Amino acid sequence: MRCASACNSTGRSHVYAGDGARHRPLTDQHPGDHTTLQAPQSRATGALDRTLALTCALGLTALLSASCAVPSADRADGARAPESGDTGTAAPTPIASIVGDDVLLVAPDGSRAVIASTDEAELLQAEVRPGREPDDPVTVLALTRVEERYELRYVTVADGDPTDLYWFPSRLQVSPDLAQVADVPPLPVWAPDGSGLAWLEWDHDGTRLRTVGWFDHDHGTNPSDDQATYAVPDLPLGTQLASWEFDEDGTPVLVTRGEGQDRWRIRIEDGEPVVALEPAS
């Protein structure tokens, strides 16, 4: 049996700089909420073709694993501060990509499939949650823009079947006033083991670091109530994160973007941020 795929991808583009999408109110609710409304339907081809493509591409079933061989990779160590993460062998890591109004999952062999579509928000960034085990679902975080605010959403793929493009609960969302202070996308980053995510946001009082934990349960994966906010007034408004790393002792270190420029390193020690400016090399 050959893997089904609509096309091949040779690039890795996470941020889509398009003409913008048509905006309508977001209606998808976090699955933990009491009310779940319908999400926009995906523009993928037949359901069977899409399921086969995703199943082959991600190696999600033993039945197709022999026909869809993908190399294994070592899982990154670490966890949310101050705990250390588990070690083990991670599943092959796909890549999330944005094309117009679609979120695509690109497998290590280059095959790809649409896992979510929306014409009510502009898709800006899509990142796969790292550190999953072979039998775990694939979770993709998406940063969107609707009118004058940025919002976080996510989709989970299990056994080739994607969920709706869920909206983060309001208590865990990006600040709605962020764009009015500095209209820069607050690009989130995953912890190396997938135990949480972080981003920088700002208001008239300055910049702050936000972190949100992530957990797995019987119905999939969700953002958790394990969250924290750290004031980092030294960071200029509009600073974006590039990565979440761990020091040798397991202490989280958030590194800002700035290729060829000075970068900020935010080390979380005993629940407090220690900020240092790293000169450009």
Q: Termini separation (Å)?
A: 50 Å
What fraction of the residues are assigned to beta strands by DSSP? 35-45%
**Pairing-aware structural class of the strands and helices?**
mainly beta
Compute the number of helices. Answer: 3
Biggest sheet architecture: 5 strands, antiparallel
Radius of gyration: 19 Å
Secondary structure: helix percent: under 10%
Overall 3D form: globular
Number of strands: 18
Mean pLDDT: 74
Helix and strand string, N-terminal first?
HHEEEEEEEEEEHEEEEEEEE
Regions with little confidence, pLDDT below 50 for 5+ residues: 1-29, 32-87
Per-chain topology:
Layout: H1 47-58, H2 62-65, E1 73-74, E2 89-90, E3 95-99, E4 102-106, E5 112-117, E6 122-128, E7 138-146, E8 149-158, E9 161-162, E10 166-167, H3 178-181, E11 189-190, E12 196-203, E13 206-217, E14 220-231, E15 241-246, E16 252-256, E17 263-269, E18 272-278
Key terms for this structure?
single chain; 281 residues; mainly beta; five-stranded antiparallel β-sheet; four-stranded antiparallel β-sheet; 39% strand; disordered N terminus
